[in-house]
Amino acid sequence: MVFRPGKTRRLAPVVLLGLLALLGAAPPAAAKVAMALVLAVDVSQSVDAGEYELQHEGIARAFENAEVIDTIESVGGIEVLMLEWSDRDKQAIIAPWTKVSDAASGKAFAAKVRAGTRSSNGLTAIGDALLASGAALEGAPDEAARRVIDISGDGMANVGPRPDDIRDALNAKGITINGLAILASEPWLDTYYDNEVIGGDGAFLLQVKDFDSFATAMKQKLLAEISARSPLERRLAAGQMQ
Fold it and tell me: Can you give the residue ranges of every domain in the chain?
């Protein structure tokens, strides 16, 4: 598993003003939770049944993990939603907004994730996945200090709007996009995600070689997102760097 910090990005050109309007107004300043998090999971046709289960189980186990729950408790709780995405019109909410603040609510969210069934297996529309994630954040039940999209996938976009255009519009609204690139099919995917998908304040990318590493990467990613520290910053704070 490799960590890569996101690049500082300039705002998008004027053409993206229309996208900003579509995505709605900025959230109120008052915050009731530390973070509203959308987990956007790739279920395109390159993801087989076994890989699909590894993703779901990895997310479920992360929300049952004691270290993750302790970190959530330390910030006073988060709101989290999971959606699946593939083709242009194939985005489905698998686990709706859930406030996770302790072990019991973490287990409740994990149960929702495990209860989900595969929603699609189409093409790879990352731009549309980001649009759907942004729309979900607008409907979060509690105002959040930070709004984050956590998108994982194993391939480059091959249909739909350009991911970087949508990313820039979301970043301009204060939404951070982090990535988990699974390199099983496309070994260069980390570079693509870094350049075209992730962005915003404190954005970072984790890369893993295959789906077997997904659970470990998801846990580390959640720990970083909840604590508002990059994976590297967390390792430094814990004295794990030589």
Answer: 2-7+33-233
CATH superfamily, domain 2-7+33-233, is: von Willebrand factor, type A domain (3.40.50.410)
CB neighbours of residue 88 within 10 Å:
16
What is the identity of the amino acid at 52?
A: Y
Length of the chain measured in residues = 242
3-state secondary structure 137-195: HHCCCCCEEEEEEEEEECCCCCCCCCHHHHHHHHHHCCEEEEEEEECCCCCCHHHHHHH
The pLDDT tens digits of the residues spanning 17-66 come to 445 455 555 544 557 999 999 999 999 999 999 999 999 999 999 999 99
